[in-house]
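Q: For a teaching handout, I want to show students what a protein-ligand complex looks like in token form. Below are the inputs, and the small molecule is pyridoxal-5'-phosphate. Please produce the holo structure.
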Amino acid sequence: MSDSTAGTGDGTRAVRAGLPEPVKNEPTLPGPTFAAHFHLPGEPNGPYTYGRDENPTWTLLERAIGELEAPGQEGVETLTFASGMAAISSVLFSQLRAGDTVVLPVDGYQVLPLVRAQLEAYGIEVRVAPTGGDAQLEVLEGAKLLWIETPSNPGLDVCDIRRLVEAAHTRGALVAVDNTLATPLGQRPLELGADFSVASGTKQLTGHGDVLLGYVSGREGEAMTAVRRWRKVVGAIPGPMEAWLAHRSIATLQLRVDRQNATALVLAEALRERPEVTGLRYPGLPEDPAHKIASQQMRRYGCVVSFTLPTHARADRFLDALRLVDDATSFGGVRSTAERRGRWGGDAVPEGFIRFSVGAEDAEDLVADVLRALDESAG
Ligand SMILES: Cc1ncc(COP(=O)(O)O)c(C=O)c1O
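A: Here is the structure, written as tokens, with pyridoxal-5'-phosphate included.
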């Protein structure tokens, strides 16, 4: 007997998430369904008619993500997208109209300023405020939608989701939370009252650096219907292969997250001792400015550690000296990556700012590599 919601542990839920009822001689997780269209004689009824609207491989993945984002909650719908940006855009552009106001974080993912410009081009007023200190509260009046990113990327500030949701709902605004960095095992925004939990599945959710994916989880109803309609209109759908790879990867989510996040804390503790490191941020460090709120709303603190080295050149030398860590963007993968974030020009960070994504290497090996690279880059 299979019940994908049976068991309450995160590991149990992850390995069983979204699995169909067992059928003799069928695989546990059916392979990807490659189909542009489905046989459809007569009335064009669902569930599967045309491949831009629905696909059985998405159905299982969407069920899996829903079980992690909102375990035991009835009436939550999840939709998957071609990328995190497709998911973000689907919420913003399906909910907002000319004349509406939206509140974005000023320190969120670096594509948000481009999104802002597009929203403004459509006649939507955009207000921005920092994530830390719940500063978005100050600019909420009259807003239709509040967009939160917590922890923020790359600064790792955290805001109080419950508090912001309460204030937004009192003013009639919807709330969307970018849950990319935390993953649903780290934070469950819908339980904290948010209307949408939105994420890039490209990061730790899938965790192997080989898939682009996004999703939106939200309560069934008008708002999610509009998100679904947006997906159909824009066609920003995941490929069946990507959806299947994502589902397969979710089975190891708890293993990866627990391992990577535990090592992230060990790395942050090691970096804390280094005199050349300033601005160290990791929400799991007890002395981190975000720790108090993070510990109230997060169950795990993520795999990203950020810090600043004295100069641009020092940061480049450090990245160059690392042997176990790829100099690459993105985060959340099983292979550690790090980058000098200022090279993109989009984030308000110092020149020597490093965003470090901790992978699944042995903690001792990784920390030793980092400490050696710090020593070697000093000269
Ligand atoms: C917090 C956050 N949200 C959204 C995205 C966009 O995701 P994708 O690259 O899958 O479009 C990213 C990508 O880095 C991100 O870091």
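A: Two things your students might notice: DSSP finds eleven helices and twelve strands in the chain. Residues 114 and 244 are 30 Å apart (CA to CA).
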